[in-house]
Automatic annotation (TrEMBL):
<dbReference type="InterPro" id="IPR051446">
    <property type="entry name" value="HTH_trans_reg/aminotransferase"/>
</dbReference>
<protein>
    <submittedName>
        <fullName>Aminotransferase class I/II-fold pyridoxal phosphate-dependent enzyme</fullName>
    </submittedName>
</protein>
<keyword id="KW-0808">Transferase</keyword>
<keyword id="KW-0032">Aminotransferase</keyword>
<dbReference type="GO" id="GO:0008483">
    <property type="term" value="F:transaminase activity"/>
</dbReference>
<dbReference type="InterPro" id="IPR015424">
    <property type="entry name" value="PyrdxlP-dep_Trfase"/>
</dbReference>
<dbReference type="GO" id="GO:0030170">
    <property type="term" value="F:pyridoxal phosphate binding"/>
</dbReference>
<dbReference type="InterPro" id="IPR004839">
    <property type="entry name" value="Aminotransferase_I/II_large"/>
</dbReference>
<dbReference type="Pfam" id="PF00155">
    <property type="entry name" value="Aminotran_1_2"/>
</dbReference>
<feature type="domain" description="Aminotransferase class I/classII large">
    <location>
        <begin position="26"/>
        <end position="316"/>
    </location>
</feature>
<dbReference type="InterPro" id="IPR015421">
    <property type="entry name" value="PyrdxlP-dep_Trfase_major"/>
</dbReference>
Length: 344
């Protein structure tokens, strides 16, 4: 992760970081009013959300946001949630642990395939699908919203990597086109650091009572002092400046990686839009991506096999290569070492 956006506290001056005495007491389960209001403006400006502060929950990252919404869905009588295939295995577990069925929905070059799914909700990453790196097309977006309006289903929009698009402005959030049918999830885990455990969920009105009840039971309220710091960062422009700066850093790393792949693995298919902190490299038919990843790790190169993210287990082999933590000067040697362990 590139260096901290500020020297110490927001604005760099500790005397500015005044915390009201009431902040040390138990707070609102949804988070502080201050941060929720700041987030409503920030998300409306940067992602096109229709966000009422009263419907924003400050959560411990996207993971808790997904868990909160799964609990709310189960409490409302839902039984089945559609998931992208491939996707993070932990998302499947977050669905199943609450007694819900996870139904895989295939992903192609236009994003998740929408064929009137017989599910109560759909969990998607439309801005930058993980791990394929595709963007949900306009046609698929319209189909998904039409499905939600017709059936009353809920779309859970994990706005993964939306801050890091390198070739153009990112596609606006789906939530802005159907706020009553879309629950929006965002986080600072990529923009600042995962250890902060700060994220947000914008919850449709019909799920608010359950979500607020469940959040109170989970951990009463999120930490007020952390929220104060984030609110100040956003209000003063420090957060936006930091994102703009690190976006350039990650873009350079991606360019170095793409060049190294073209040099050492010519002819290999590299997939995913110019965004985020990873690319997907497809392997030749018949090559075991798990075996390749193991050999690469023996050369101190971490490549994650695409098959690890497959729900139904029939995905063509590939390697997910992250570049968020590698120095630019080390990329060429790492790709050369990777190329050496892939069967000809």
């Amino acid at each position: 992760m590139p260096r901290s956006p500020v020297g110490g506290l927001p604005g760099g001056r500790s005397e500015d970081f005044a915390v009201p005495l009431g902040a040390y007491d138990y707070g609102d389960p949804r988070g502080t009013q201050e941060l929720r209001e700041v987030l409503a403006g920030h998300l409306g400006r940067t992602r096109g959300l229709v966000a009422d502060p009263e419907q924003i929950f400050v959560v411990h990252g996207t993971a808790q946001g997904v868990d909160l919404l799964m609990r709310a869905l189960a409490a409302e009588g839902a039984s089945c949630v559609g998931v992208e295939d491939p996707c993070l295995p932990s998302q499947i577990e977050r669905i199943r642990v609450h007694g819900l069925v996870a139904r895989p929905m295939p992903v192609d070059a236009a994003g998740v395939v929408i064929n009137d799914p017989d599910v109560d909700a759909v969990l998607i990453t439309p801005a930058h699908q993980f791990p394929t790196g595709v963007v949900l097309s306009g046609e698929r977006r319209r189909a998904l919203l039409n499905w939600a309006r017709r059936t009353g289903g809920l779309v859970l929009e994990d706005d993964y990597d939306a801050e890091f698009r390198y070739d153009r402005q990112p596609v606006r959030a789906l939530q802005g086109l159907g706020p009553e049918h879309v629950a929006y999830l965002g986080t600072t885990s990529k923009t600042l650091a995962p250890a902060l455990r700060l994220g947000w969920a914008v919850v449709p009105a019909r799920y608010m009572p359950q979500a607020e009840r469940i959040r109170l039971l989970l951990d009463v309220c999120p930490p007020a002092i952390d929220q104060r710091a984030l609110a100040m960062m956003i209000e003063r422009g420090d957060y936006d400046r930091h994102v703009r700066r690190v976006r350039k850093v990650y873009q350079r790393r991606r360019e170095h990686l793409i060049a190294a792949l073209a040099k050492h693995l010519p002819g290999f298919q590299v997939e995913g839009i110019a965004a985020g902190m990873h690319v997907l490299v497809r392997l030749p038919a018949g090559v075991d991506d798990t075996a390749v990843a193991a050999r690469a790790l023996g050369e101190s190169v971490r490549a994650v096999p695409l098959s690890r993210f497959s729900v139904v287990g029939n995905a063509r082999g590939g390697l997910v290569l992250g570049y968020g933590r590698i120095n630019e000067r080390d990329i060429d040697a790492a790709v050369a070492a990777l190329a050496a362990v892939i069967p000809a």
